[in-house]
Each structure stands twice: as structure tokens, then as C-alpha cells.
Amino acid sequence: MNSASQVAALDMNSAVPQPQDYEYVLEVINARKEFPGVVALDDVSLRVRPGTVHALMGENGAGKSTLMKIIAGIYQPDGGEVRLRGSAVELPTPLTAQEAGIAMIHQELLLMDYMTVAENIWIRREPKNRFGFVDHDQMRRNTLELFNRLNINLDPDAEIRDLSVANRQMVEIAKAVSFNSDVLIMDEPTSAITEKEVAHLFDIIRDLKAQGIGIVYITHKMNELFEIADEFSVFRDGRYIATHASTEVTRDDIIRMMVGREITQMFPKEDVALGEVVLSVRNLTLNGVFRDISFDVRAGEILGLAGLVGSGRSNVAETLFGVTPADSGTISIKGREVSVSSPHEAIKLGMAFLTEDRKDTGCFLPLDIQENIQVAVLHDQYVKGGFVSEAELENASEEMGRKLRIKTPDMQECIENLSGGNQQKVLIARWLLTNPGILILDEPTRGIDVGAKAEIHSLITQLAHKGVAVVMISSEMPEVLGMSDRILVMHEGRATGILDREEADQVKIMDLAAQ
């Protein structure tokens, strides 16, 4: 049965209340969820009206994603109930939730790399021909029709592995919309897309609202809440705090509710006496990706890399760290030209690299927190006489966990069970444990709540004070402007300009990024 016929079947079911019969399309009442050593949700409630966007706010570990997984049938609650269209429902599986009219876009994209765009969208719902085989032509037409409705310009026959992170995000959005659901959950849907694509997504959301769909929207970006949300609810430490109309409060009000304290300085950038040039790059080129990139970074300096998605920022970072060695150009550290042919060589040279995609290229998901933190130092720093100094390494790992406020019952918890923001903190802890002289950060605060962002920004400033040379890539303009001493702007694989902190503003950066 395809998605349209599934919805038709639901509409024909007289047991399903009609819109006039209920005030809320989705209600969660006194939900409770416990994991070993952790109460993830402590009697929380949520109510979503049809035709509205209800934003869910809270720090990482507040329970937002846990609640969404209960609604999507991934987790089963230990207490409380879920109501759809006014009636209590049980959602034992994700398929049950989908059939009941709930679709979810996950923060960590759940697509099959070696399948096409169309196959990913219609998996388990493929149109069949009269012989019972998948009708690929019809599936392609269905995909194009969906893309035309959403104004998405992608080839249905392209394989997922060949798409950018931003385009994969658009496929996830299209897939969720294809279910024609009454409830659509969006978990950090703009974390990997450009400002232009965010505007496009918001147009899609407004169209869905007009159709009466209730949207639950999880975000850490305050400006998005005020632009797209009608109401919002705040969770803190697994507890419900409050619900308000977005027009009733200020940004500072929301932060106070989220963190239970004032965030007085979001970007604690301080003037640091810059030392010698630590990293010098000249005419760095990776054929077909970027060319002739040149810059210097001094001890204590934070160099921001700005540009639109596809500009080549992340590719430059990967080449510096030896993931994709350069075809030409030079890299020098403290005046000595070096060859960076692999990440192992980069680490030996005092580099550390926080990757953009924590799930695919950062976390070792089957391992626990301590193992993930320790993995970059097992070859050298904590090895004595051929043996790992386990006690010393364990103490250092636990200290990093405390320093970064990683929310976990213990360091033996599997990293896969942590929220996205806490996974990010584990990866930062991993690289800080190497005591790097050069720290490359690709989207260091993506998917991290406002309180943790301030802590990480403060940590970056502390590292600059210690003489670490920092290269920071960010798609968030306030972060680039607030944290950088200088900003290198890229467009389509080439550097279009370098701005000093005093002269940089959003208009100048966007002008250089669009050249």
C-alpha cells in the first residue's frame, strides 16, 4: 500500500476522530522513561495543536530526543500515555507510529548509502507492477512529483552516498513529508543546511501548517524559534518546565528556562597576545575540490573559515589533517615544511581534528565513552614500556568528562546512547586529551544547546590563551564573527578574502562567500 492509500484508509476509518473532535493532534501525558542509572523523562507532558509548529527547547540531555522516540515508536514509555487526535494509542514499533500518522526526521540521518534517492524515500512502500515487481519508473515519477511539490532539485536516481550532507537532509525531509502524516517531528532539521535551504525548509513547513499538520520542531537555534514556531515547551534535566507562545517571551527568558541560570556571555572572545606562526599553508590544492588556498595561523589565534555549504571549507580541513592528502601546495608547522599523508602523521605533528559528521566520521558507536575519548592517545602519550597506563588514562578521561559536563551515568556507557550534543563533547574531549598545538574544529557546536555552546566557546578561548592555533569552521555567522581573530572566506573551492575581526561583518562575509 502506498502512502496516499494508507492515508485514505485512515481517513475512511470512522474510529479516527475528525478535526472538530479534538483540540490537540498530539498529546503526551506524564511520560516517564528510565535507562540504567538515568531517569531520562520524569512525568513530562506535551500538547501540539493541528496546523501549528511546536518547538521543543532544552539543553542536551534534557530529554527531547527521548520523548520524540517514544512518540515515534522507537522507545516504550515506563509510564504515561500518548494520545493522537484525542484518543489514547499504543505505539510499539516505528511502523505502527507511521501507520498512525506520525513521521520523524531524525537528527542523525537514517538513509541507505548504496540505495538511490527514490529507493530511500519509498522503502517498504514501493509501487509494484502487475507481476508484483517494483515499478522503478513509477517510483521515479512519484519522487519527481514529490520533489516538484516541495521545490527540491535532486535526481531520484542518484545514490545517497554521492550527495552532500545538506542534500541528504532534504531527502529525509521529503521522505517524512511523503507519509502525509498528521504529526511531523523534526529533530534539528537545519543543522547541516545553508541559510537559503533553511528559508526553503520554512516555506515547506508553512505549507504543511496550512494543511493542518502538527509539527514538533527540535532546535537549538533561537532565531528559528521566533521565525517559525507558534508555541514552545522547555525541558530541563528530563523534566517539563513550561509552555509559552513564542510571542510572549524573549531569547533571554528562554535561556533562563533552559539552563536554570544566566548566560552572560555567549562568545567569550578575549584578546590574546599572538605568538609565532604555527601553521602556514601555501597554494594548497586538491584537484577538482579546492585550489591555491593560502593562510597563516599564529599561536593563540582563532582563524575562522566561512563560506556556504559546498565552498570547500571541510575539504581543506580534511586535507590539513591528512584524510585526503593534497595534490600540490605546502603545509609548514613552525617554519618547517611537513608531509601530512595520513591522520596518524597529523596527530604526530600535534594536530587534532573535530570532524563535521560525528556519527559517520567521529564516534565509534559500539564503544563506550571512555574508549572513545582514549582512542587518539593509545599510541603514544599514555603508553610506557609498551604498556598502557590504564589508571592514568582513566583519570584523565574522567577529568575531561567532568570538564565538559558530559551527561552520563558513568564513563562505561555506550556512546550510542548519548544525545547528539553529549557525543560532540566526547569527541572534543578526545582531542583535548592529545594536548594539540593545532586544533581544527569543523562545526564544533552543531547540535549543541546554548549552555554547552557557551562552555565550548569559553574552552576554545582558554586554549587560545595557552598558545594553541585554532582553525574553526562554522556555518553560524554569529559564531564566526564572535570567536574569530581573522576570517578566511571561501567560495566554490577558492579563497575570496581574509577579514580582520575589526572589519568583519555579516554583509562583507556573505559578499565574499557569494563571489
What do these coordinates show?
- The chain is of the alpha/beta class and 515 residues long.
- The protein has 3 domains: 3-259, P-loop containing nucleotide triphosphate hydrolases (Rossmann fold, 3-Layer(aba) Sandwich); 277-350 and 436-513, P-loop containing nucleotide triphosphate hydrolases (Rossmann fold), CATH 3.40.50.300; 369-434, no CATH class.
- It contains 18 helices and 22 strands.
- The radius of gyration is 24 Å and the shape is globular.
- Strand 17 and strand 18 form a beta hairpin.
- The N and C termini lie far apart (48 Å).
- It has a 6-stranded mixed sheet with strand order 6-7-8-3-9-10, sandwiched between helices. It has a 6-stranded mixed sheet with strand order 16-19-20-13-21-22, sandwiched between helices. A 4-stranded antiparallel sheet has the order 2-1-4-5, covered by helices on one side.
- Helix content is 34%, strand content 24%.
- The chain has helices at residues 3-12, 64-71, 94-100, 117-121, 136-150, 165-178, 195-210, 222-228, 251-259, 313-320, 343-348, 358-361, 369-374, 390-403, 420-432, 450-465, 477-483, 506-513; strands spanning 26-35, 38-48, 53-57, 79-84, 87-89, 102-105, 183-187, 214-218, 231-236, 239-245, 277-286, 290-298, 302-306, 328-333, 336-338, 351-354, 383-384, 387-388, 438-442, 469-473, 486-491, 494-500.
